[in-house]
Write a structure and sequence with these properties.
single chain; alpha/beta; FAD/NAD(P)-binding domain; Guanine Nucleotide Dissociation Inhibitor, domain 2; 3 domains; seven-stranded mixed sheet; 18 strands; binds flavin-adenine dinucleotide
């Protein structure tokens, strides 16, 4: 694949230490947002260097090889919707090899009584699937889609606001976003399995249950994407999620940016006026603008002397909710899961959908309640996705990859995390899925368990939170960290800034826009 070859050249060219003493801008971290920011600045003619602590690029949008022979796995994120279509055009990402396919059908829930629910873009087929549970829900579902499309559109439009403010939304919209995901879903449909399938997006990454206030926002956030031209659709990215980062890195380098993997930034340097003037990353590098893709706690506590910050800011940093409940389990399979309700190990439509196991909202609420009381879910929230029926190049011939995203397995679980607890959590998840696909345990040839402390250690996600902190009221819009920080010359371009997490590129674009506005060409 030409894109892959081109990037291999980029990395080998840039994986030595920076030799330039100064740049217009330095970016701390080569997550997809740092790369998007660097690409836009470089395209605008600025000299830019990116320093990444890992030996590979992309942060949580990464395709990793070498874990198991012949496999490429999306170790963290695995599907895409929120990536800003403007970035795709502006940085010519498709020309650089980015290719994505609509996930269709998009959601599948097997049930233990032999029934199942499969939803996709075919309205007539959806109607048949839904009517098998409750014929009144056919119209209810259409109304739900219409309302949540409007909700998602409203969020998307707010993602580029100069000054993010929650009160930009009308009172009805605010009520929905501040309420629970369950309230939104239950307004429109009644069949428990349909309710559960729809409410799931309100819980992703969030340490709350479906009936808790604020999960309405999380639901809407996951329906805000427009990558595919239709509101809220999700896509599978060819080559895994690292292909997004790879295309962004290629763009950045093509416009002149330099990218240094294996180059952790140890400190942000300041002048006598406490303005950011560069970084130390093995060597001292100066820059007019320092842009951090790292988690806000890393940026302001580890890389900066926090005594510079005023008390309210430090209070916000300390109070920032960033305890993640999500565990990623990546499996290599010798054959596809054989679901009792839709038998067969040949690739069928349901194998291309996101697979859920929750039969009702109550199941998901119990998964959360169990974690709060005992440290983990007895029967977890599970959503999983098989990449290989769409992209066979990711695994050896005839083999498959199952990406499993599970909750609730909180970072701060009582008694802490040990190897035995990680393996036990993975066993619980496999056993839960195996009730629907009994061949699963014997089909597993390799497994990788990434509990929240592993997400922290591997990707720098403090507290294991997949979004650099909860995406809940109190931490969104004006209450998220601002792109322009209290330290002059220092900017945030990661998910800790508006509009928060997911593979979107918006925080990176916002930071590039701010830097270009603050530094006229002469100032660089
Ligand atoms: C398990 C999991 C599943 C997910 N699933 C999805 C999904 O399917 N779809 C979706 O849209 N989103 C998903 N997400 C969320 C999404 O991946 C993240 O919100 C997004 O990738 C964050 O991008 P970022 O660029 O803001 O930050 P990160 O990806 O966190 O990048 C920050 C970068 O900064 C680097 N860094 C940190 N400190 C330093 C330092 N001192 N010096 C140099 N570099 C440093 C880090 O190594 C990292 O590369 C998932 C996340 C996880 C963890």
């Amino acid at each position: 694949m030409p894109g892959l070859l081109r990037l291999a050249a980029v990395v080998s060219l840039t994986s030595r230490q920076s030799t330039k003493p100064s740049y217009d801008a330095v970016v701390i971290g080569a997550g997809h947002n740092g790369l998007a920011c660097a690409a836009l600045l470089a395209k605008a003619g600025r000299s830019v260097a990116v320093f990444e602590r890992r030996d590979r690029l992309g942060g949580a949008a990464v395709s990793e090889t070498g874990i198991w022979p012949g496999y490429t796995i999306s170790a963290a994120s695995y599907v895409c919707s929120l990536l800003d279509p403007w970035l795709v055009e502006e940085l010519e990402l498709r020309e650089r090899g980015l290719c994505y396919y609509r996930k269709d059908p998009y959601a599948f829930t097997p049930l233990l009584d032999g029934r199942s629910l499969l939803l996709g873009t075919d309205r007539a087929q959806n109607a048949r699937e839904i009517a098998a549970f409750d014929s009144r829900d056919v119209a209810g579902f259409e109304a739900y889609v219409e309302r949540t499309d409007r909700l998602g559109r409203a969020l998307f439009d707010s993602f580029s606001d100069d000054e993010p403010r929650f009160d930009r939304f009308d009172p009805e919209t605010q009520t929905l976003l501040l309420g629970s995901a369950a309230e939104i879903v239950e307004r429109y449909v009644s069949a428990p399995v349909l309710q559960a399938e729809l409410v799931n997006d309100g819980l992703i990454g969030t340490y709350l249950g479906p009936r808790d206030a604020g999960t309405g926002y999380v639901l809407a956030h996951h329906l805000a994407g427009r990558l595919l031209g239709s509101q809220g659709s999700w896509a599978y990215v060819r080559g895994g999620m690292g292909s997004v980062s790879r295309a962004l890195a290629e763009a950045a380098v093509s416009y002149g940016a330099e990218i240094y993997p294996d180059a952790a930034v140890e400190r942000i340097t300041l002048d006598d006026n406490s303005h950011a003037i560069g970084v130390e990353a093995g060597i001292a590098v100066r820059a007019n603008a320092v842009i951090s893709n790292a988690h806000p706690r890393t940026t302001f506590r580890e890389l900066l002397d926090s005594s510079l910050l005023d008390a309210p800011f430090i209070e916000k940093l300390n109070a920032w909710k960033t305890i993640g409940p999500s565990l990623k389990l990546n499996l290599a399979l010798g054959e596809l899961p054989n679901f009792s309700c839709r038998p067969g190990t040949n690739a069928q439509p349901h194998h291309r959908a996101t697979i859920h196991v929750a039969p009702s909202i109550d199941y998901l609420q119990k998964a959360y309640d169990d974690a709060r009381t005992s440290g983990e879910s007895e029967e977890p929230l599970i959503e999983c996705f098989l990449q290989t029926p769409t992209d066979a190049s990711l695994a050896p011939a005839g083999k498959h990859i199952l990406s499993i995203f599970a909750q609730y397995f909180p970072y701060d679980r009582a008694g802490g995390w040990s190897t035995a607890k990680r393996e036990a959590a993975a066993d619980t998840i496999v056993a839960t899925l195996a009730r629907h696909a009994p061949n699963l345990p014997s089909a597993i040839e390799h497994r990788q368990v990434l509990a929240p402390p592993d997400l922290e250690a591997r990707f720098g996600l403090i507290g294991g939170h997949i979004f650099h902190g909860e995406l809940l009221p109190g931490q969104i819009y004006e209450d998220r960290f601002a792109t322009r920080t209290p330290v002059r010359g220092l900017y945030l371009c990661g998910s800790g800034a508006h509009p928060g997490g997911c593979v979107s590129g918006f925080p990176g674009k916002r930071a590039a826009t701010a830097v270009l506005a603050d530094f006229a060409p002469a100032a660089f």
